[in-house]
Design goal:
D-Maltodextrin-Binding Protein, domain 2; globular; binds (2S)-2-hydroxy-2-methyl-3-oxobutanoic acid
């Protein structure tokens, strides 16, 4: 016999299972934090993710990008903590900016660890990448896919830099991780840490003599217009981008939607990596056309920088994890096989 109670149970079971109830649990919009906006490959990576998720979820999952680290008042090194605590839902963030909270991510900042793009891929797409994602997950953030900010090149307003001695005493703006202070101090420079928001004003007033950022950032942000006339292509490090979701929030998505968010992040990342690498030659040509003195190092000059920065490995490998560093070095060495 079918009584009232059974009917209620049946109705509530139906409601629980229906997509309507599920959608009601979801937020109308999710915040996605980035440092660089849509004019840069980084912002485009986030835009692509938002677009793919909207399309594939048929409008059920909506995300909105907040660039310039505005959700953490411009302090990009606070992005990871804000995501962990749920203040920020999602982010496409640089490994540099998250490394104060995830020590393992300093791996990518070890000077001259990765000579080329294949070396980046050998790390991110292999066992080292898996270990790094596990390290992030342990800290309350769920990583989904990789993107790329790019190889960071050194610019300054004073003179061409071709040897460590050329950096002597130069005031260089560096990003959030203390590792950068060690690298530039080791090279005899005078590094100072500041956010991206403060970097351009500091270059404009001459408070600092130089900075390091990928060619795409130098180009789009028009760093040439603030007196940065010398640019050394030393490829000393590259910062990958990571697409991620606050783990608390992650648990609120259905298994299907978790898979959707993850695949969209992987696809957006692949798209952005390919696009930004393909654009590099044009970007470099544009920078040269603007009269910037672009310096390429000879193998001997390059080797002098590699040798001079070895002390950074001694100090930082134990903090990052000696085994992790060795695993990465092996993956890089094996990349062409
Ligand atoms: O601050 C920088 O230099 C930038 C934009 O490249 C990063 O966020 C790592």
């Amino acid at each position: 016999m079918f009584n009232k109670r059974m009917l209620l149970t049946a109705v509530s079971a139906l409601l629980l299972a229906s997509p309507l109830t599920q959608a009601a649990d979801y937020k109308a919009e999710y915040t996605v934090s980035t440092v660089l906006p849509s004019a840069f490959p980084w912002g485009q990576a986030a835009d692509k993710w938002v677009e793919l998720v909207r399309e594939r979820s048929e409008g059920r999952i909506n995300m909105k990008v907040y660039s310039n680290a505005q959700l953490v008042s411009g302090d990009q090194t606070k992005e990871f903590s804000a995501m962990r605590s749920g203040l920020i839902d999602m982010a496409v963030g640089s490994t540099i900016n998250w490394s104060p909270q995830v020590a393992e991510l300093n791996l990518f900042s070890l000077p001259f660890l990765m000579p080329d793009a294949k070396a980046i891929d050998a790390i991110t797409q292999g066992d080292t990448g898996t270990a790094l994602f596990a390290a992030i997950e342990k800290r309350g953030v769920t990583p989904l896919g990789w993107g790329e900010n790019g190889f960071r090149e050194l610019s300054n307003s004073k003179h061409p830099i071709q040897a460590p001695a050329d950096l002597s005493g130069l005031k260089i703006r560096v990003v959030g991780s203390p590792l950068f202070l060690d690298t530039f101090n080791t090279l005899g420079a005078n590094p100072t840490q500041m956010s991206w928001a403060d970097a351009k004003p500091a270059l404009t007033t001459g408070a600092v003599d130089g900075q390091e950022n990928p060619l795409s950032v130098f180009d789009v942000a028009r760093i040439d217009q603030v007196g940065q006339t010398h640019l050394t292509q030393w490829h000393y490090m590259a910062d990958p981008l990571i697409f991620a979701v606050s783990t608390r929030l992650w648990r609120s998505f259905s298994t299907e939607d978790q898979a959707l968010l993850k695949q969209a992040a992987i696809d957006a990342g692949r798209w952005e990596i390919e696009k930004s690498r393909a654009e590099l030659a044009d970007t470099l040509a544009r920078i040269k056309e603007r009269g910037v003195n672009v310096i390429d190092l000879t193998p001997e000059q390059h080797a002098a920088f590699v040798a001079a920065t070895q002390p950074v490995y001694e100090k930082w490998a134990p903090k990052i994890g000696t085994e992790l560093v060795q695993q990465a070095q092996q993956a890089v060495a094996a990349r062409n096989n």
